[in-house]
Design goal:
Blueprint (H helix, E strand, L loop, with lengths): L9 E9 L5 H12 L9 H6 L7 E7 L2 E10 L3 H11 L4 E2 L2 E12 H40 L4 E3 L4 E3 L8 E5 L2 H9 L5 E3 L7 H7 L3 E6 L3 H13 L4 E4 L11 H9 L2 E2 H8 L6 H38 L1 E6 L2 E7 L3 H7 L6 E4 L2 E2 L1 H9 L4 E4 L1 E2 L10 E4 H5 L1
Parallel strand pairs: 8-9, 8-10, 10-11, 15-17, 16-18, 17-19
Antiparallel strand pairs: 1-3, 1-5, 2-3, 4-5, 6-7, 11-12, 13-14, 13-15
Helix pairs in contact: 11-12
Length: 400
């Protein structure tokens, strides 16, 4: 939760539990209402908030199984004694609306102490960055000069104009990497038979080379490397697989890390078995695409149904009516003031009840007797006994 930055001395943190379903405005109203006049005019909450001596009261509350639990935060610029008195007053709140409640103050935090600690921690980070920059100046100079020399050896290869080392044509084996920077890093350490995919889609040049040469795919140790590897395995003839350590990219590996990764390369069949990877053929890919299209259509259908329910709900709310639906079709409309009686008497079969009013315990009981499995209403009231086969939703919950 966000706290008001204007009140910057103390933060009162409390928990609240209620025996019923309540919302944030109910809790805030109870705080103002039940503390009014309790502490005298000088510590009246409304006056303190108007004058900026306490900040905005934040409430985060959730309801489940007919009960509500949450947290209350109140920023204060009062002194320590006044803040402690105000915090103690919160524990006198014993009801929120019609529901019994219990408020417990967990702590009063000194916001300034927290800010000071953040300043110290951030200062340490900045100092470490400064020291690290000074230490790496000479290393960066050496690397810059080396790259300026080695970059002259990068060639443009094939009809797809891919960055590569000068020995790709001469070598019986090649190393396929992700980008130009990877080729340069390998060149820095004398490896001149690397060629880059240079994108997320495998070029025809790589596919053709894989049919004539022994190919090692040497990829970054991240999710991007996983995706390129799957694409390579689907369209090219790969013999070995090598990976940078998890979280590392090939372009940033040291000589020792790079050589170790290449020495630990494994045959493609072994890699697939140990990593539980399944390669899809072209026909399987088409089938997967069709399945995705079908899924998208179903989602569009569901969204359309939600929009229809939203329009119907708006209409019912305006006319003070409820509607009984069966398979998303309205089978009966009932005035709200006669809903319980007419729902009991109806012979229509339905699976969903939409009401522009509040979902009450009595309504839930009658709906359960009629075999209704879903109720959508303006608000969920104090329902303490919910049958397992009935879903209770508000209009906003349907949208989500």
């Amino acid at each position: 939760m966000n706290t008001d930055p204007y009140a910057a001395k103390y933060l009162i943190r409390a928990t609240i539990e209620t025996e019923g379903v309540v919302e944030r405005p109910d809790v805030v109203g109870a705080i103002f209402g039940q503390t009014e006049g309790l502490l005298g005019d000088e510590l009246d909450l409304r006056d303190l908030q108007k004058s900026g001596r306490i900040g905005r009261i934040e409430v985060d509350i959730k309801s489940e199984k007919g009960k509500s639990v949450g947290e209350i935060l109140i920023p204060s610029s009062l002194d320590q004694v006044e803040t402690a008195i105000l915090a103690a007053a919160l524990e006198t709140i014993d009801r929120v609306g019609p529901c019994r409640s219990r408020v417990k103050v967990i702590s009063i935090e000194d916001i300034r102490a927290t800010k000071r600690q953040k300043v110290v921690d951030r200062a340490k980070e900045l100092l470490q960055m400064l020291l690290k920059q000074g230490k790496q100046v000479s290393e960066d100079l050496i690397k810059t000069v080396r790259e300026a020399v080695e970059i002259e050896e990068v060639v443009i290869y094939g009809e797809d104009h891919l960055p590569a080392g000068p020995n790709v044509d001469k070598s019986e084996a090649i190393i396929v990497v992700e980008g130009r920077s990877d080729v340069i890093n390998l060149l820095n350490y004398g490896i001149k038979n690397a060629i880059a995919v240079n994108g997320t889609s495998v070029p025809k040049t790589i596919v053709d080379l894989s049919k004539k040469k022994i190919v090692t795919a040497f990829l970054d140790g991240d999710h991007g490397g996983d995706l390129i590897l799957k694409e390579l395995l689907q369209v090219a003839d790969i013999d070995f697989i090598a990976r940078a350590p998890p979280g590392y990219e090939v372009e940033e590996l040291t000589y020792k890390q790079l050589m170790k990764a290449l020495r630990n390369k494994v045959p493609v069949e072994q890699y697939l078995a140990t990593h539980n990877i399944e390669i899809k053929k072209e026909g399987e890919k088409e089938e997967e695409e069709q399945e995705e299209i079908k899924k998208n259509k179903e989602e569009e259908k569901e969204e359309s149904q939600e929009n229809d329910i939203g329009a119907l709900f708006k209409e019912l709310n305006a006319k003070k009516e409820a509607a009984l639906l069966n398979e998303n079709k309205v089978v009966e409309r009932i005035p709200l003031n006669e809903l319980i009686e007419k729902l009991k008497a109806t012979n229509e079969k339905g699976d969903t009840l939409i009401t522009g009013g509040i979902i009450s315990q009595r309504l839930v009981d009658v709906a359960a007797e009629k075999g209704i499995t879903k109720i959508i209403g303006y608000k969920i009231g104090n329902v303490t006994k919910r049958p397992l086969n009935i879903k209770l939703l508000t209009k906003d919950m349907v949208k989500k």
